[in-house]
Design brief:
With 349 residues, this protein is mainly β. Helices cover 13% and strands 36% of the residues. The protein has 5 helices and 23 strands. The strands form 6 sheets. Strands 4, 5, 7, 8, 9, 10 and 12 form a 7-stranded antiparallel β-sheet that branches. The radius of gyration is 24 Å and the shape is globular. The two termini are 37 Å apart.
């Protein structure tokens, strides 16, 4: 009897907290804590904030509510490291963190030894999104016009591959030695307005500068398809791992999936772990860390004796936004209940 009463009180605390939310704002759904949620969990290398939260709640993207994070902390969450202990306080409805044998405290800044090899736990799996963090995925019309350009080869070949030398114009003042090779790809079209939002930058491979000059001598170090004259070079930058805490947009946002990418290339439909481009970006209020719900697109179906009708948009998954441009954003599919299709709907959950 006492055990049943304790469980009832615990469930009531969590339900009330979910309704109030971390900043006192109304929340459309209470945060659901799993019945089998552990009292504590030791963070290990390879964990993600999303995955850790999934051990405690059925809605992993809402973990900032359990941590009681404010808006600034959501944009730059305090870091969690391997070896830290995550504890669930069933009475207060909060998660807390402790390092080693220290007493648990709410998630707060902690000084780390600069010599440690430990790296902070990322929000989502970095291996999947890293190529999309370093590469310039979207270019404005004419955005590659002034980029360094391949103008020729040693043997004047039409198509080049890894190991071959090429000559590049526009690198005489460049300090970078490693470069991506790109070609302007398909246009990203807004399906609702038919406007061109930009062009996808088609990744061809990497190159290394051997000798500066005009033109410079460059070796193609890696290629995934043939490189030709006129292709462009863009300096390789360091990837910035996404540490934003997952959170819903503050306002209602609705958009569409306009392209789908996996390790195998661009697809018509895909599943969990796929990368999707959305027809909403910074100008529409999208930010890194935003979580959007996936819905099927409404379709017209014939109905006997009554002509036709529109099917409802049905929710079936979640995406996490990790890179944002002015009018386009890229997100990773984190949860899905059916195959994702191009032109499916995303909106504030």
């Amino acid at each position: 009897m006492l055990e049943q009463l304790r469980k009832f009180i615990t469930a009531l605390v969590f339900a009330l907290f979910g309704l109030i939310g971390p900043a006192g704002a109304a929340s459309p759904q209470p945060t659901q804590v799993k019945a089998e949620a552990p009292d504590s969990y030791v963070v290990v290398k390879g964990d993600t904030l999303w995955g850790i939260s999934g051990r405690f709640t059925n809605d992993p993207w809402r973990w900032p509510a359990l941590w009681d994070l404010n808006k600034d902390q959501i944009k730059n969450p305090h870091l969690i490291y391997p070896g830290d202990v995550i504890r669930l306080d069933r009475l207060s409805g909060r998660l807390s963190i402790a390092s080693g044998s220290k007493d648990p405290n709410r998630l707060s800044p902690r000084i780390r030894d600069e010599g440690t090899t430990d790296k902070p736990i990322p929000s989502i799996p970095p291996a999947i999104i890293e190529p999309f963090l370093t590469r310039p995925l979207v270019v404005e019309p004419g955005g590659l016009d002034k980029a360094p350009t391949i103008v020729g080869t040693e043997d004047d070949r039409v198509a080049m591959s890894a190991g071959e030398r090429v000559y590049v114009r526009g690198l005489s003042d460049a300090s970078a030695k490693s470069w991506f090779v790109y070609r302007q790809g398909d246009a990203l079209i807004d399906p609702d307005t038919n406007q061109t939002l930009g062009f996808e930058a088609k990744y061809l491979g990497t190159a290394v500068v051997l000798a500066s000059g005009e033109p410079a001598t460059v070796r193609l170090s890696h290629t995934i398809q043939e490189v030709t004259k006129g292709d462009k070079l863009i300096a390789i930058g360091k990837p910035q791992l996404v540490t934003y805490a997952p959170h819903a947009p503050a306002t209602f946002i609705k958009g569409r999936v306009i392209s789908i990418h996996t390790a195998g290339g661009r697809l018509a439909e895909a599943g969990q772990g796929a990368i999707v481009a959305l027809n909403r970006g910074r100008a529409d209020g999208i930010d890194v860390g935003h979580v959007l719900a996936l819905y099927t697109q409404s379709r017209t179906v014939k109905v006997a004796d009554s002509g036709s009708m529109q099917t409802p948009e049905e929710r079936y998954g979640l995406v996490f936004v990790f890179r944002v441009f002015d009018r386009v954003a890229y997100a990773i599919v984190m949860k899905i209940g059916r195959p994702l299709s191009n032109l499916d709907v995303v909106q504030t959950p």
